[in-house]
Amino acid sequence: MRDDSGWLSMQSPKPTRHILSLSGGKDSTALAIYLRDRVPEMEYVFMDTGEELPETYEYIEKLEAYLGKPIVRLNPERPFHHWLLVYRGVLPDPRNRWCTRKLKIEPFERYVGDDLCYNYVGIRSDEAQRKGYISTKPNIIPRYPFVDDGVTKEDVLRILEESGLGLPEYYRWRSRSGCYFCFFQQKIEWIGLHESHPRLFEKAAGFEKYDPVTGARFTWSEGEPLSALLDDERRREIRHNAAKRTALHKTARTKLWDIFADEDDQEGCLVCHL
Ligand code: SF4
After folding, report:
1. Ligand 1: which of 75, 91, 96, 100 to mutate, judged by most atoms within 8 Å of the beta carbon?
2. Does the first or last residue of the chain, that is N or C, have fewer Cβ atoms within 10 Å of its Cβ?
3. What is the C-alpha to C-alpha distance for residues 104 and 110, in angstroms, rounded to an integer?
4. What confidence score (pLDDT) does residue 2 get?
5. What structural domains does the chain harbor?
6. pLDDT tens digit string along 136-186?
7. Which atom of ligand 1 is nearest to 177's Cα?
8. What pTM was estimated for this model as a whole?
């Protein structure tokens, strides 16, 4: 094994671990399929926030059957609503992603402990510039096999197709894996959540807060509470805007997941959205 960390040159009494963390998204799933026979000692983990979509849980189960190996579910020490209280009701957002640290990264680091580990990450070669926090612990060394091997989005889609797993079901209405309330969602995706999982939509809305004393408003979707998205006129407007974007994309493409797949490459969270 290549010594590229400095850490590896230290004597370690334990064998090096190989860990692939799954988000329930297309890229990390394709990576698991891609490496199944190449790295037989691989450990598979799924950082289960407890706030995932039902489709994600189903997809992880299907993948587990395909891999023929258990996928270890890693749960946070405390649930989301506990941390929301700790953060005084301030919802996480792209600039303040306390959710990623508390619900995903810390459970992963606890699982690894002080062991030396290669952490396999599903960034593709066509997005090699994409950066994101995985872990800063020196004993956790990221590996990017898709980047090293020149695997692109088309390859990922082919890997999934050929495995029989295909794409996760939520791609019909949403662009990314992750929590049902993820703030990276577009407004049209919130409407998709309402249509597919009205109770989860209501639950997400229940976390929003308005403080009449300070005027502070904590909402998931920028500029408006979730309830506003259900207003008939607003809903029509959101659909119209989304249809316009879709029409633009459809000049070159025909499948909805192509449109979403473009968007999930641009922003988001490497731990949650691969
Ligand atoms: S999926 Fe979104 S809300 Fe959930 S932990 Fe990741 S960034 Fe936070």
Report:
1. 100
2. N
3. 10
4. 44
5. 7-172 (3.40.50.620), 187-263 (no CATH)
6. 799 999 999 999 999 999 999 999 999 999 999 999 999 889 999 999 999
7. 1
8. 0.87
